[in-house]
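Saturday, quiet lab. Running sequence design on the structure tokens for the scaffold JK sent over.
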């Protein structure tokens, strides 16, 4: 297979972690006889410094013309005082909106080797956790009509049937490939948008008879995630609920440096990035954990290129390296072998 990937390293630890992810991508190419070519583009603070805007046209165009996008992270204190339309984070919204990426996949995995990092009791998480939050990314209250005057303010949550159906179908397809269990989260006891959401889930369900569906109100879902997270496999929900629940789910794994994400559109095109930010405190110091970005490459292979065996190979290489006791500083515990960003990337590439 031949694929061209747009690489946007961004700011802070972005270049450190992307370097390691590309090491692993190239090891996969060599092992499985695929050709992965890459082009580098600037976005975020580095683009502001060079061009005066966070998302240059050339970057968006390069990303749109590629087979998929690998992103590091953007932002940092240097650009924090700029007006909001010039903040590096605008680049992320521009990329998501500009490429129509409406489906955000956020796996929350607690590796058994890192069980001590989990803030929940052992009897609650058992042998580890592995759940997937599917979040609608381009609709809902973050994009609805808004306004304010001195005494009042409003934001509007709006969804069309089409917007709900396309994200719900993605979630059903993912649930079908995993355990066959899907939990749809809404607030249908109060919100019109949630009542429509529930109706669409019910109708689409007919096309996926082998997927077992449950419904939860979002307040209950937030509670259940810490009370009994193992009851969940795939969760699907609208934009704002998904924003909150996916952060909650990632924090119960206790390891921000370990979690990847994908943002997809209707075809197989996607943008893949770690869930963490640019960690300016440790940038360029060989301290960053590259595993979230390496696992983002695995997601790219699985969801954009249909290369499930290759994706499994990366995930099991990560697991093997953890089994051998190698840890970057953020996941280090006594008795383990402490390694830097670059050595962690090399160990995973070699383990492939
Ligand atoms: P952050 O995720 O960058 O860092 C939070 C803490 O986690 C820091 O102590 C950091 O050192 C640590 N950390 C993060 N990733 C790590 C890794 N891979 N390995 C080891 N430790 C890691 O969040 P923040 O400090 O709130 O934000 C820093 C900058 O990143 C801000 O400018 C913010 O706007 C931006 N940000 C960008 C994205 C993105 O590009 N998607 C997401 C969140 C924040």
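Result came back. Writing it out in full:
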């Amino acid at each position: 297979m031949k694929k061209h990937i747009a690489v946007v390293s961004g700011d802070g630890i972005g270049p450190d972690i992307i370097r390691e992810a590309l090491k692993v991508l190239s090891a996969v190419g060599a092992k499985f006889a695929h050709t992965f070519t890459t082009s580098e583009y600037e976005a975020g603070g580095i683009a502001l410094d060079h061009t005066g805007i966070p998302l240059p046209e050339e970057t968006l165009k390069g990303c749109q013309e590629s087979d998929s996008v690998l992103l590091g992270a953007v932002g940092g204190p240097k650009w924090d005082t700029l007006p909001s339309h010039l903040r590096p984070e605008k680049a992320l919204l521009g990329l998501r909106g500009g490429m129509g990426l409406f489906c955000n996949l956020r796996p929350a995995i607690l590796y058994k080797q890192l069980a001590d990092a989990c803030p929940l009791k052992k009897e609650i998480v058992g042998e580890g956790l592995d759940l997937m939050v599917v979040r609608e990314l381009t609709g809902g209250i973050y994009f609805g009509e808004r306004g304010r005057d001195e005494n009042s303010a409003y934001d509007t949550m709006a969804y069309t049937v089409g917007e709900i159906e396309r994200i719900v179908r993605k979630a059903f397809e993912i649930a079908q490939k995993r355990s066959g269990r899907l939990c749809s989260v809404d607030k249908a006891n109060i919100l019109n948008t949630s009542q429509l959401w529930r109706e669409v889930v019910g109708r689409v369900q007919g096309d996926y008879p082998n997927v077992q569906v449950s419904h939860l109100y979002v307040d209950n879902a937030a509670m259940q995630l810490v009370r009994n997270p193992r009851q969940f496999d795939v969760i699907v929900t609208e934009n704002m609920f998904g924003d909150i629940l996916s952060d909650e789910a990632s924090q119960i794994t206790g390891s921000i440096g370990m979690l990847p994400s994908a943002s997809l559109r209707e075809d197989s095109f996607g943008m893949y990035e770690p869930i963490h930010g640019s960690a300016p405190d440790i940038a360029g110091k060989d301290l960053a954990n590259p595993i979230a970005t390496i696992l983002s490459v695995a997601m790219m292979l699985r969801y954009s290129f249909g290369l499930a065996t290759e994706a499994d190979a990366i995930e099991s290489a990560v697991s093997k390296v953890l089994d051998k006791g190698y840890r970057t500083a953020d996941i280090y515990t006594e008795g383990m072998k402490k390694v830097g960003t670059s050595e962690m990337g090399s160990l995973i590439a070699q383990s492939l």
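Notes for JK: The CA atoms of residues 21 and 86 lie 28 Å apart. The chain has two domains: 1-118+266-352, 123-252. Ask whether to fix the surface positions before the next round.
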